[in-house]
Design brief:
four-stranded antiparallel beta sheet, alpha+beta
Amino acid sequence: MNWEQVVKIKKNRYIVDQKKAQYIGLSQDEIYRISSEVAQHNQLIQEIEWLSPHMKFENGNLNFDAKKARQSGLPEKLINQTVSDLQKIKGHIQSSDSFSIMVVKPSCSGSNKTISRWYGKDVYMDSCKANKLSALIGGGATAASVGAAITAFAIPGLQVPATITSFVFAIMAIGSNAISYANAEGCGVIFRYTYGGSLPFWVSSQCG
């Protein structure tokens, strides 16, 4: 539980409370490990913040506007990687330097919400969004692309980058197969994750 004890969010960034870490007796190696994890989370937050204004989820389509991203001065490497991530998904389209994951007449089941628990959160995601997420992860998308997509899904409680980095790392670790299996009946899925990943992460179906 060391992460939960010494890591806080300030101005949409994670910080390590060094004094508290020393007070509870963490070793320098443990503090260094947590600080390294915090740096990874903060880098992902930055990339999601860059991508999110240009990633939209509308009418069943996940769209990335690479042209506007370039006009906004985003790093070219990040833009190219995001475009590549979407291109790996079967059914993508290209138009005016924008890329989309398309679904024809989507029929989505399940709810979209988050429930706070003592260990972290339970995240409910409908079947369409779960399919998109599984496809991205299965195609080898980066954490930044996955995070921007989740932000575009606009699920209450998962719309601020600093609140979703633990979730992003957790779902990428569990993999696309587990998500697809949980969503096999088309009811949507429930993700359970913890802040800092100190407890097991799992995904299950929303089917009653």
